[in-house]
Specification:
Blueprint: E1 9-10, E2 14-23, H1 31-41, E3 45-49, H2 57-68, E4 71-75, E5 83-86, E6 91-99, E7 110-118, E8 121-129, H3 134-150, E9 156-161, H4 169-175, E10 179-180, H5 181-184, E11 203-207, E12 212-217, H6 227-233, E13 239-246
Parallel strand pairs: 2-3, 8-9
Antiparallel strand pairs: 1-2, 2-13, 3-5, 4-5, 6-7, 7-8, 9-11, 10-11, 12-13
Helix pairs in contact: 1-2, 1-6, 3-4
């Protein structure tokens, strides 16, 4: 059985926060299985990609939050897919949804961002789903770094579906500035593509300098995370990280 990550804690000098990144494929699959996986991960922050963004998308977002034991923070259609959910432990200070410049013929992309407070620790959060086009994706990587800087807090995480592998140009651009959670403190399973698909790590959690990554990876083997649920929930595997955020 896979050992659990450190539990969420608050202390005078720092706070441990559990961050989950998950591409939910517009909730077209087994939502009950999806919710069970999210609940088992016991995350404080969930960065969603491919959240529903068309007809009655707010109702779908509310359903996912409710069944996962979380609350809606921001994003969805307003960020063209990325969304942020959180536990009641998080105090929401600020949110902003950002639409990115669009290449004609390609999908609109965006960022869901928030500044959350856990005890005395403040954490910027960015959920992203980058382009399938290599050139557009590289530009979006630069915009992601700019947006993290614009959050106005010293500590932040960015999580999402990069559509790029660790040896790719955009992944490398981000990893050159931020801490790649898996590379920093590997835990669980590395590859994030659907079970049975070619092995790739295209989903990741990154952290700014000063954030201590305690562990990061796909939570296969974590108590409560069942392989049948992972297969039924969506076409990506989730990435779970535990990070220690200092008090600024």
């Amino acid at each position: 059985m896979l050992a659990d990550l450190p539990a969420s804690t608050s202390a005078p000098d720092a706070s441990v926060v559990r961050v989950l990144s998950y591409n939910v494929r517009s909730m077209r699959d087994d939502v009950a299985a999806l919710a069970r996986v999210i609940r088992a991960c016991a995350a404080d922050v969930v960065c969603i990609q491919e959240a529903p963004r068309f007809f009655r998308w707010r109702k779908a977002a509310a359903r996912l939050a409710r069944e996962s034991g979380l609350v809606y923070v921001t994003g969805g259609a307003t960020a063209s897919g990325p969304m942020i959910l959180s536990s009641l432990r998080a105090h929401v200070e600020h949110t902003e949804d950002v639409l990115l410049p669009r290449t004609p013929g390609l999908h609109q992309r965006g960022f869901a961002t928030a500044v959350l407070r856990f005890g005395q620790a403040r954490l910027g959060v960015l959920s992203c789903h980058l382009s399938i086009d290599e050139r557009e994706r590289y530009v979006q990587g630069g915009l992601l770094l700019e947006q993290l800087g614009a959050l106005g807090v010293p500590y932040a995480v960015a999580a999402g579906d990069l559509n790029d592998r660790p040896d790719g140009r955009t992944f490398g651009r981000l990893a050159g500035v931020l801490q790649d959670g898996w590379a920093t403190a590997p835990w669980g399973r590395e590859h994030t593509t659907r079970l049975g698909d070619p092995l790739q790590r295209i989903d990741a959690v990154f952290a700014t300098a000063g954030v201590e990554v305690l562990g990061c990876g796909v939570p296969m083997g974590l108590p409560g995370v069942a392989v049948p649920d992972l297969r039924a929930a969506t076409d990506h595997l989730p990435v779970l990280a535990a990070v220690r955020v200092p008090v600024a």
